[in-house]
Amino acid sequence: MTSFTVGIVVFPGSNCDRDVAWALEGCLDIKTKFLWHESSDLNDIDSIVLPGGFSYGDYLRCGAIARFSPLINALHDFVKSGRRVLGICNGFQILTESGFLPGALVANKNLNFICNDVDLNVITSKGGWFQKSDEKQTIKLPIAHGEGRYHCDQDTLKRLIDNDLIALKYKTNPNGSTSDIAGITNEKGNVLGLMPHPERACDESIGGIDGLYTLKSLMT
Amino acid sequence: MDKFEVKVFIRLRPSVLDPAGEAIKSASSKLGVQGITSLRIGKMIEVKIEGNKEEDVKEKIDLLCDRLFANTVIEDYEYSIKKL
Questions:
Q1: Min Cα separation B52/chain A (Å)
Q2: What pLDDT is attached to residue A155?
Q3: What is the C-alpha separation between A205 and A202, in angstroms, rounded?
Q4: What are the backbone angles phi and psi of residue A76, rounded to the nearest 5°?
Q5: DSSP A57
Q6: pTM surpassing 0.80?
Q7: Which of A83, A119, B25, B53 has the fewest CB atoms within 10 Å around its CB?
Q8: Which residues does chain B have with pLDDT short of 70?
Q9: In a 3-state reduction of DSSP, which class is residue B41?
Q10: Could you give the domains of chain B?
Q11: Residues A33/A5, Cβ–Cβ less than 8 Å
């Protein structure tokens, strides 16, 4: 029997792929495998992370070109099988562009690239991505994005609320996102997209461990 | 086979805030140009494409706009076609 393996997708322009591997392997002892975006064989893969970065240089729109890679094509069956997919930052943008998650990520309201630790409220227990799930639970994770303002229309927002799909909200909205949204899940709960970087909060020596649980839950 | 030139205009939907447009609006008034009530930034994509008739080209451009050039969650598009 092979051990549980998390696939980390590498696009041209990904730059958080090794951080994710470091957090999973070094902090959690979870086996990882880098998956070049042109591969589509996901048979040995148990969960997938779409890491942050600037896939295809963010040309046209963030994540717009990555969605046409063979791997993203294969991701449809992967998600249908119930296996878990975590999209971080640019990975979240790719998940919305590819239609796995509703809405879109657009330029921050203040046009700044924001690189900061933010406090977040955990909203949903769907998918079990966070340790406790009530609005009183606050976690602190770093964000680093120029285009992280989550946008959706009112109908979509209502659907997110009614179906309990909002995963994280900013306590203090840094980028102007609709309803303070920082992360959402799909209806089944096996796909999570979020702008904050859990992989950068997995060791006390670099500022916190609030991201550990989310990465660990890839093994759920 | 005829040749066509297509100009595709992509705009943020009116409901989506355009902070870069706001920044340029503010710079415009600093340049001394008054009276601008709205300024929004879009994209223009020029495509040269071959096809037997305009209808075929339209079909291809519609596909490109819907699936690649624009994200219809946040953007609207329109285009013009000229036979070369």
A1: 27
A2: 97
A3: 9
A4: -60, -50
A5: G
A6: yes
A7: B53
A8: none
A9: coil
A10: 2-83 (3.30.1280.10)
A11: yes
